[in-house]
Structures are given as C-alpha cells and as structure tokens.
Amino acid sequence: MVKAMSDERLGFHFDVDGTNFTSAGQASVEVKKNLRQIGVPPEIIRKVSIAMYEGEINMVIHAGGGTADVYVSEHCVEIVLRDEGPGIANVDLAMQEGFSTAPDNIRSLGFGAGMGLPNMKRYTDEMNIETQLGKGTCITMRVNF
Amino acid sequence: MNVHDLAEKLGLTVFSLPESDREAKGVYIGDLLSWVMGRAQSGQVWITIMSNINVIAVASLSDVACVILAEGVTVEDNILEAANQRGINLLGSEKSAYEIALELSGLV
Fold first, then answer.
1. Do the Cβ atoms of B16 and B99 come closer than 8 Å?
2. In this predicted complex, what is the ipTM?
3. Domains in chain A: how many in total?
4. Which CATH number goes with the domain that contains B52?
5. Domain of B93, in residue numbers
6. Which of A42, A93, B25, B98 has its CA 20 to 30 A from that of A128?
C-alpha cells in the first residue's frame, strides 16, 4: 500500500502475516519492485530488500507477524519493523553471527542460522532496536544514498 | 556466458528460464538462506540443495543470475510458478554441488 506522507516522503505499509512462513518475503519483494519503479539505485535496493526480508522472516519465526513501513526520501530509505512478539532477551547476543533461538523446523527450511540481525546491520547504515520483553520489538533501519 | 548457454553446455534440467539471456559471473554454494543472502553477489550462479519457496525469494533479493538445484533435487509446481513470476532462472542437475562447480570453472 502506498501512502503520501505529510513531509513529502513516499511511504509503503505492509502487514506481515505471522501464520504463513512460505509467504514471508512478499513485502520485501514488493518493496524491491516499488523502489525500482521510482528509480532508486540497484545496490541500495539490494541492501534495503535483504535487510527487510531478514526482518520479515524474524517477525514470522519469533513474533507471530507484525508490520513493516518503508519511507523513501531524497537521500535515504528508512525501514520500520514493529511486532508485538516476546521481545529480544539479550540484544548483544542476538547480534552475534551464529546465535539463534529458531526451532528445528525453521532450520530445516534453511533459516535459523543466526544471521538475521547481523545481516540487517551489515546491509544498513543505521540500525536501532527497541525491545521490551513480553511487549514487542521495533527495529528502525536506514540505508543512505 | 548467459544462463541459456550454460544450461545447454552442462546439460542441466530446466525448471524455469524466464530470463535466459542473463549473464552469469561467478559461483556461490550454500544452503543456509540467510548466509547465502548475506554473501552471494548479484549475477552469480547459486548452487543449493534447498528447494522450498523461500529459495525463490532469496534468489530474487540477492539478484543471482540463476539457481542450480544439485543432487537431483526437484521442485513443486507452486515454486515453479513463483520462479516464473519473479524472473528466477531455476535449473537442476543430478550431480553434487562440487561436481557442478568444477564444470562451471572457467565458464563463468
């Protein structure tokens, strides 16, 4: 869904379905298409869509879904992911490559390698995690160009 | 070398080839999708034994030239449909990832 922002940013909003693991990634693919249409450079699109896909997968695995908002302005793309999941108990640990709390059925699908949050950080210029146990998590990422 | 010529030269099974003239350069092998997404480069050939629907999303987001499913792995119809919709070249081989990589050496 595209919405006009009052501060002249272009915004896209998506609901991430937490019940269907196989459809995870739809929002990222849609964002990729939208960014391409408005002429964002390919390398920026790659970064944004990979970071967002990891976030989407995390929301499906751990939080029962959530929402994703993407804002495009003149010099950056901002991604805001919100969920009402269990929160992240230890953010420093979760940021380490290889650390994962994903269950075996998720691992058998090729995820749960403990690369989600590290990839999100790697592919973005700024990343901020606000999390509260039992309440949920909000991750804001920014890719500059 | 483009993906069509690559498929022909290696005798690969063609599951979907919506962008057959895509140039392939370099190879990445891996089955952990997040790892692949973080490491594979745009335009590479990605060899994997994973064949679930998320492979199509990862191939699309990491912008690889094609995916080769190794060791005789096959795909279901919904995956073929997603591959065609998203412009993902999906090929297959009975050989192992290592054997495929050896054959690709010097070609891409």
1. no
2. 0.75
3. 1
4. 3.40.1390.20
5. 3-104
6. A42
Nearest CB to B57 within list A29, A113, A123: A29
CATH of the domain at A69: 3.30.565.10
pLDDT in tens, A80-132: 999 999 999 999 999 999 899 988 888 888 888 888 999 999 999 999 999 99
What one-letter code names the amino acid at A25? Answer: G
Q: Do A113 and B34 count as a contact with CB atoms less than 8 A apart?
A: yes
* pLDDT score of A58: 93
User: Which stretches within chain B are classed as H helix?
Assistant: 3-10, 33-39, 54-62, 77-85, 97-104
Closest-CA residue in chain B for A109?
Answer: B52
d(CA B98, CA B19): 25
Q: Is A107 helix (H, G, I), strand (E, B) or coil?
A: helix
A22–chain B Cβ distance below 8 A for any pair: yes
- Count other Cβ atoms within 10 Å, centred on residue B63: 19
Cβ of A53 and B37 within 8 Å? yes
